[in-house]
Amino acid sequence: MSNYNEMWRSLGLNMEAHDRLLQALPPTYHDVYLTQPNRPQGLEYFDFVVNEIHGLRIQELQEHKQNGGKVIGAFCVFVPEEIVRAAGGICIGLCSGIDIGAAEAEKVLPRNICPLIKSFMGFKLAKICPYFESCDMVVGETTCDGKKKAFEILNDYVPVHVMETPQMKRGRDRELWLEEVRDFARLVEETTGNRLTTETLAKSIREVNGKRRALRRLAELRKNDPAPISGLDSLLIEQIAMYDDVERFTGKVNELCDELDKKVQTGEGVFPSGTPRVIVTGTPMAIPNWKVPHLIETSGAVIVAEELCTGLRYFENEVAEDAGAMDAMLENVAARYLGVNCAVFTPNTGRMERLVQLVREYNADGVIHCALSFCDPYAVEANRVEKVLKEENIPLLKIETGYDQEDAGQLKTRIEAFIEMLG
Amino acid sequence: MSNYNEMWRSLGLNMEAHDRLLQALPPTYHDVYLTQPNRPQGLEYFDFVVNEIHGLRIQELQEHKQNGGKVIGAFCVFVPEEIVRAAGGICIGLCSGIDIGAAEAEKVLPRNICPLIKSFMGFKLAKICPYFESCDMVVGETTCDGKKKAFEILNDYVPVHVMETPQMKRGRDRELWLEEVRDFARLVEETTGNRLTTETLAKSIREVNGKRRALRRLAELRKNDPAPISGLDSLLIEQIAMYDDVERFTGKVNELCDELDKKVQTGEGVFPSGTPRVIVTGTPMAIPNWKVPHLIETSGAVIVAEELCTGLRYFENEVAEDAGAMDAMLENVAARYLGVNCAVFTPNTGRMERLVQLVREYNADGVIHCALSFCDPYAVEANRVEKVLKEENIPLLKIETGYDQEDAGQLKTRIEAFIEMLG
After folding, report:
1. Residue B337 resides in a domain
2. Torsion of CA B56, B61, B64, B66, to 10 degrees
3. Chain A residue at shortest CA distance from B383
4. Is residue A112 included in any domain, yes or no?
5. Alpha-carbon gap, residue B385 to B63, rounded angstroms
6. Largest alpha-carbon pair distance within chain B?
C-alpha cells in the first residue's frame, strides 16, 4: 500500500507509528483468517477490503471530501447512519479494536479503563487512524461512563457531538431520544450544508435497511448445520459493515449469501456437521479484535451468532418504511434505535429474552459471554445473563479480557474445557 | 453495645460477621479521630453517634417502624429526602464505605469494580448492615454504570426503585428528571401509605434546607485561618448527615458552630495558622472511609472543604421555598437536585468552575483529587479538573485508591511531597 503514503502524510498521520501498525496487521490476518478451512469464495471481497483498510477506502473518503462531501465518525450503533447518508455524508465506525497509542492515551485517561476507549484515544492522540483524521465531526453517545467522559477529552482534539442515549425505554425516554435524533438531523444538515428531504431520507432508510437485511440473510444461513461460514468470517463482515460503502457492501454480502445458499443445499460447511455450536455475547468486538472468536473456533466449536453491537444488535431491527412525512420518518428512526438491547438500559431484559430465543433458533449448545476488561455495563450484566441461562439450563462461559495476548493461553484452556463439556 | 444483640438477631444479621465489624471500628476510630489535636467539644455528640452507629439509631428506626413508619435507603445525594420525610418516612444513606463481604459480593459482581459498589453488595449479601435490613425499600439511581447495573442484582434481595438521573442539564433532561421526582413522590406515598400535602412537603423542605444551612454554616467557618475544625471531623459530620435524625442533627451542628464562632473570634484552630490548606474533590467518601483525609491531615495540611457528594454537593444548594402548590414544590425539589455537580453529567463544567471558586473562597493552596479505583466518571473527569486547575495555576495531586490499606504508605509519600511543595 506504499502508493498511499502521500495521502497519509497529507492527513497528518504519524507515518512511523502508522507503518508499524500496517506491518503488524497482515501476519495477524493471515494467521487468524487465511488459515481457516473451507472458506467461501465470496470472502475474497472482504479480504480485499481489509487489505485496503487504510488505503482504498480512505482514498474514497478523500474523493468524497474533495467533492464537498462530509465524513462523520462514530463509535456506537446508536448513531443513525440513515440521517448522515440522507444528507450526502458518509458515516464510518472509528478505529478502536487494537492496543495502540496507549502511552499517549494514558496521559489523559486512567490506566484501568476499557481497552476500546484507550484505543480510540490512543489512535487520535498518536495520529495513527486515517479514518479519524478524515472526520469532519465525531459523534459520541452516553452509553457508558468511560466513553461519555472520554468524549469530553476527545473534544479537545476533534469536534465531538454527544447524543444522550436514555437509560430506560419508557415514554419519557423515547421522547428524550427523539429530540436527540431531531437535534442530530439538524446538526448533520448544518455540517453537510444539505437539507434532509423526505425523498433523500426515505431512500437512505431503504438503503441502510437493505444492508441490515443482507446481514440478516447471512445470519439466517448460519442456522444450518454444518454452518456454511465461520463465526470469524461473519464477525469480519459485521465489522466491515460499519465503514464500507453501503450499497457495494450490501451487494457483496448478498452475493456471498447466494454462494452460501448453494453450500447449504449441498450440505457443505466450514466445520463438520455436529460441531458444537456457540453464541457469543457481550461487548462489541471492534476490528481487529478477533482474539476470543479465534480461540473458540480453533478449539473445536463454531460460532453461529454474535449477540453483540458488532453483530445482531447492529442489524436485527429495521427502521419502519411506512412514513411519508419528515417528522414521522425521524420518529421511525428514533424508535428503531431504542430497540437495541444495549447494557446502557436498566433493566436490559430484552437482551436476556433474545439470548434464550437465539439459543433455540440457532440450535446453539452454549453461550460465551465476553466482556472487555473494566466494562462495567456488560461485566455486571453478565450476572443477569448467567441467571437467565441457568434457569434455561443453557451452558455459559464468562470471560473478561482486554486487547493484549497475555491471557490467550489461559483463555484457550478455559474455552477448550467449556467446549469439551458441550460436545 | 451488647444489649442490641436481640435487635440485630431479629433483623437477621449475620451475628458473627457483624461482631467482627463492630470490633474493628472502635480502634480505627480511635486512631483516626480521637488522637486529633484541639478537637472542639461539640464533637462529643458526633462521636457518640458513631459509637452508636449500629445501636441507638437502629433502635430508633425499629421504633419508627413499630409505629407504622417506613424506612427508605439510598446511596446517592440525588434521592430527595424531603419527599420521604414529608410522607412520614425516614431516608437513610446505606453502608458502603468499608471492604466487607467481598467474597459474597464477588459471586455476583466482577472483581474489578468500584469498592463502594462491592461494599454495598457485600453488606447486603453477607447480612452485616442493620440499616440495609431495616429498609422497606431501597432507591437507586443511574449516576454510574456500576451502580446502575448492580441495582438490577440487588433487586433480587431487596426491592429497589431506580430513578433515572439524566446525563445533561438541558430542558429535556429537566423534564425527564421532574417526571422521575413525581414518580418517586407517588411511590413514596404508596410505600408509606401517607399522602403528601402542601403543608407536610413545605415543612419537610424547610427542615431539610435547615440541615443544609447548618452544614453550610459549618463550611463557612472553615474559611478562617486557622481552621477551627479539622477536615476529618467535618467529613464525619457530613457522613452522619445522611443517616441521623434531621432536626436533632441540625441542632447539634448549629451548637457546634456556636462554639466554633467563638474559637474563630479568639483565633483558636486545630492546626497552627499558616498550615497548608487543601480542598479534597472526587468520589464520595462513605463512612468509615477516612483513609485519604487521615493521610492528608497527618502529613502537615488541613482540609478546608470537600467538593464531594459527602461534602459541599450535599448541602450547597437549597430547595426554593417560594412555592405554594404541590406541583410547583416538586418542581423546586427537582430543580435543586439538578444543581448537583455530579460526574454523571457531560460536560460537568459546573464542577470545574465551582472548584476554582472554592480555591479562592477558602484560600486553599492546592487540590487533592481522590477517585475510587475503577470509578470511570471521576477518574476520567480528573483530566478536566487537571486542565482547569493548570490554567489557574492551582496545584493538584491526583489519587486513585480503594478501601484497602495496602497503598497507604505509598500514598503518604505522595501526599507529603505534595504538601511540602505547597508549604
Report:
1. no
2. -100
3. A108
4. yes
5. 45
6. 58
The three grid cell numbers given for residue B3, joined into one nine-digit string: 444489649
pLDDT in tens, B256-293: 999 999 999 999 999 999 999 999 999 999 999 999 99
- The answer to whether residue B188 sits within a structural domain is yes
CA within 13 Å, CB half, A317: 20
Q: Do B112 and A379 touch (CB under 8 A)?
A: yes
Cell digits for B408?
497507604
Are the Cβ atoms of B153 and A343 closer than 8 angstroms?
A: no
- Min Cα distance B347 → chain A (Å) is 6
What residue of B is the nearest CA neighbor of A371?
Answer: B110
Residues forming beta bridges with residue A203, ordered by sequence position: none
Cell of B169: 442539564
Which CATH number covers residue B163? 3.40.50.11890
Number of residues that this document lists for chain A:
423
| Average confidence (pLDDT) over B30-40 | 97
Nearest to residue B19, comparing CAs of B120, B130, B177?
A: B130
Q: CB-CB: which of A148, A347, A371 is closest to B167?
A: A148
CB atoms within 10 A of CB A111: 11
Q: Do A172 and B150 touch (CB under 8 A)?
A: no
Q: What domain count does chain B have?
A: 1
For residue B381, the chain A residues in CB contact (below 8 A) are 149, 152
Has residue A376 been placed in a domain?
no
Domain of residue B15 covers: 2-31+43-196
* Nearest Cα residue in chain B from A178: B172
ipTM: 0.96
Task: Find the mean pLDDT for residues B13-31.
Answer: 94
Query: Helix, strand, or coil here: A417?
Result: helix
Which of A346, A386, A390 has the highest number of chain B CBs within 10 A, making it the mutation to test binding with B?
A346
Long-range contacts of B12-21 (CB under 8 A, 24+ apart): B12/B127, B12/B133, B13/B127, B13/B128, B13/B130, B13/B133, B14/B126, B14/B127, B14/B128, B17/B100, B17/B101, B17/B126, B17/B127, B17/B128, B18/B54, B18/B127, B18/B128, B18/B130, B21/B98, B21/B100, B21/B128
CA distance A235 to B264: 68
Instruction: Quote the cell numbers at residue B117.
Output: 459498589
